[in-house]
Specification:
mainly alpha; Fumarase C, Chain B, domain 1; Fumarase C, Chain A, domain 2; Ribonucleotide Reductase Protein R1, domain 1; 3 domains; two-stranded antiparallel sheet; about 60% helix; about 5% strand
Length: about 450
């Protein structure tokens, strides 16, 4: 394909250099955005009298035809084109002749690619946000169902205190809700139009940037043309928000893997989201969760690569910035794929409530409640803590539990103990009493679920 930029040079480059320079193989993904941006630009040119209204309509009709042909498969991408912008413009010129050459008036590929990427990322972020809302809805339903399902809570991966499975799920729901907010914040800053910045200095034509921005549903225009073409903060924000999201998904995936193992057996993942072994017939592997955990590294890598690409670039546009799209596209695809499998995997898993309860009954996770019982009798907490620890050591030495100890043993450590100690260390009571805001009591968990549902309804 002839180079649109031929003139200063003869436009002939080595084939290897052509392949190295081209981005059509991946930026063809932005064809809808490129055509939408061009249609808005043609409308602005016609409105301002830079081209005639009739020429503007011809251009818009030609672009609509290209879009329809690409969507139907009647037109294929020409991978000898340098990029999607050159492909569309060349196809338009081939169809319309001299009128097609007028489309690029008062713009540059520099502001055009910045526009296309913002349009595409805005749409993709909206789709990711919709998927996050679905995930939150599943978490809310599960948490409500298991608001009173007792399980051990862990610190240092050691049994610590009794909690409910609903409380556990709402911890992840809280993280995902923050992720949703981060995407919304990033989208708001991203939703400004760079078109009209041209190559870097603006244009001598009497353009109406605000009109073009409104046509494309932007909130306004970028206020500096140098910034308009060189800014990729919106990519960094998207990649950063996605990296934090993937951290949360990876942590959840890790616990799904642990909790579905024989050693825990708290949950069982549906056969639809597990695989088997080629040699060990008993195996049921949580491969989908493992892949979510593994793919997190891809997103981290994309973010670091993007920061590295930008860190030393002078203003304004540099060809290095062509590397932004593959980083962004890979993260978009990875995040969407992980959410597409995680949400139904959670919705279809089996929760083994009896196993959770049995695990909570071991490990002395009511020892803090034992100490708190003595505090209610007037003993200072640190003294109560010591006695509770000594009683745990006694139980371990005698292969028994706090619930099974005779009252006489308790009273040998402190005369403050009475029959009420057994009610105080009952697991259900331990959970019920943790009714502070955000706590693990069923009442508190249901309040958290209601708050989440209100958040989703806003």
């Amino acid at each position: 394909m002839a180079k649109m930029w031929a003139g200063r040079t003869d436009g002939v480059t080595d084939r290897v250099a052509d392949d190295f320079n081209a981005s059509i193989h991946f930026d063809c993904r932005m064809y809808r955005e490129d055509i939408a941006g061009s249609m808005a630009h043609a409308a602005m040119l016609g409105k301002q009298g830079i081209i005639t209204p009739k020429e503007a309509e011809i251009l818009r009709a030609g672009l609509a035809g290209i879009l329809a042909d690409l969507e139907s498969g009647a037109l294929a991408f020409d991978y000898t084109a340098e990029d999607i912008h050159m492909f569309v413009e060349a196809e338009l010129t081939a169809r319309l002749g001299e009128v097609g050459k007028k489309l690029h008036t008062a713009r540059s590929r520099n502001d055009q690619v910045a526009l296309d990427l913002r349009l595409l990322l805005r749409r993709e972020m909206d789709e990711i946000s919709a998927s996050l809302r679905e995930l939150l809805s599943v978490l809310a339903d599960l948490a409500e169902k298991h608001a009173a399902t007792i399980m051990p809570g862990y610190t240092h991966l050691q049994r610590a205190q009794p909690i409910t499975f609903g409380h556990y799920l709402m911890a992840y729901a809280s993280m995902i809700a923050r992720d949703l907010s981060r995407y919304a914040d990033a989208r708001a800053r991203m939703n400004l139009s760079p078109i009209g910045s041209c190559a870097l200095a603006g244009t001598t034509y009497d353009t109406d940037r605000a009109f073009e921005a409104r046509e494309l549903s932007f909130d306004g225009v970028m206020g500096n043309s140098l910034d308009g073409v060189s800014d990729r903060d919106f990519c960094l924000e998207f990649l950063s928000a996605s990296s934090i999201l993937m951290t949360h998904l990876s942590r959840l995936a890790e616990e799904l893997i642990l909790y579905s193992s024989w050693e825990f057996s708290f949950i069982e993942l549906s056969d639809a989201y597990t695989t088997g072994s080629s040699i060990m017939p008993q195996k049921k592997n949580s491969d989908m969760a493992e892949l979510i955990r593994g793919k997190t590294g891809r997103v981290f890598g994309d973010m670091v690569a993007m920061f590295t690409i930008l860190k030393g670039l002078p203003l304004a546009y540099n060809k290095d910035m062509q590397e932004d799209k593959e980083r962004v596209f890979d993260t978009v695809d990875t995040v969407k794929a992980c959410l597409d499998v995680l949400t139904p995997m959670l919705a279809t898993m089996t929760v083994k409530e009896k196993n959770m309860r049995a695990a909570a009954a071991g490990g002395f996770i009511n020892a803090t409640d034992l100490a708190d019982y003595l505090v209610t009798k007037g003993m200072p907490f640190r003294s109560a803590y010591k006695i509770a620890g000594e009683l745990v050591a006694y139980c371990i030495a005698n292969k028994t539990t706090l619930e099974e100890l005779p009252l006489a043993v308790y009273q040998s450590y402190s005369d403050l103990f009475d029959e009420g100690v057994f009610a105080a260390i009952d697991l259900d009571a331990c959970v019920e009493r943790r009714c502070s805001e955000g706590g693990t009591s069923p009442k508190s968990v249901r309040a958290q679920v209601n708050a989440l549902k209100n958040f989703l309804g806003e």
